[in-house]
């Protein structure tokens, strides 16, 4: 069963992180959704955070995990939000289990195929040799040789934890990511449609959703609405959480 944090009372609202992320990335926003009247479930997807590791890693497998989570927690009518990789999971879940989903929110990702672009990040993570028992500062120094952006490094290093005294490790399953990296960019299969209300939010400084993608998105999500957060990049919810919260709650309460 997937690891989750459940808070609040009201309509069940599932939130799913992106690639190399975890539920902790959404802790602050989750608290705001609780105050807005939702029962919030922030998940760690398989091979991420505190959830289980598996050699099988695909969108189909992740959707099955979420479906089993909903069954185990008796969630029959939910709203769902996914960012990046989590957005792809949310799209596939909504199109294959529409009877469970009322409203869908997708943050800065589309249903199209994305070519691999995480090579530098993975090279930095793979350069860390935990057998020599590096400190947190040592790990950051190694990763910084490959990942120059401070915010991205901090996001990645949130995955560090003490496996045992004196021994750091990453929470995510790096070996499986190395072996199945093409899985992350996979497109939503043709012919899958979600007929209910859907909101796509993109960062104005991000190139993940282009104006030219709108028509293709509407083929899968005919009721899609589009919002843009100005000057925000791919981590739009972290860069402008106030506007992100306002846009999403307004949509959910319509």
TrEMBL record:
Transmembrane segments: none annotated. Keywords: Hydrolase. Residues 11-109 form the AB hydrolase-1 domain. GO terms for molecular function: hydrolase activity. InterPro entries: AB_hydrolase_1, AB_hydrolase_fold. PANTHER family: PROTEIN ABHD11. This is Alpha/beta hydrolase.
């Amino acid at each position: 069963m997937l690891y989750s944090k459940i808070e609040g009372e009201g309509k069940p609202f599932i939130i799913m992180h992106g690639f190399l992320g975890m539920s902790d990335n959404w802790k602050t926003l989750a608290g705001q959704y609780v105050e807005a009247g939702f029962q919030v479930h922030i998940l760690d997807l398989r091979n991420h955070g505190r959830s289980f590791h598996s050699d099988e890693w695909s969108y189909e497998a992740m959707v099955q995990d979420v479906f089993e989570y909903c069954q185990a927690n008796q969630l029959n009518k939910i709203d769902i939000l996914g960012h990046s990789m989590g957005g792809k999971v949310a799209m596939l879940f909504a199109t294959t289990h529409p009877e469970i989903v009322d409203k869908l929110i997708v943050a800065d990702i589309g249903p199209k195929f994305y070519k691999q672009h995480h090579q530098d990040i993975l090279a930095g993570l793979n350069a860390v040799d935990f057998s020599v028992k590096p400190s947190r500062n040592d790990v950051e120094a190694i990763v910084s040789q490959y990942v120059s952006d401070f915010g991205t490094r901090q996001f990645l290093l949130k995955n560090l934890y003490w496996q045992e005294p004196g021994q750091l490790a990453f929470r995510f399953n790096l070996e499986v990511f190395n072996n199945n990296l093409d899985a992350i960019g996979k497109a939503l299969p043709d012919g899958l449609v979600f007929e209910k209300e859907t909101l796509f939010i993109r960062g104005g400084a991000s190139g993940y959703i282009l104006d030219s993608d709108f028509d293709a998105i509407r083929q899968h999500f005919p009721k899609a609405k589009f919002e843009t957060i100005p000057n925000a990049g791919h981590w739009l919810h972290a860069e402008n959480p106030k506007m992100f919260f306002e846009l999403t709650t307004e949509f959910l309460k319509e």
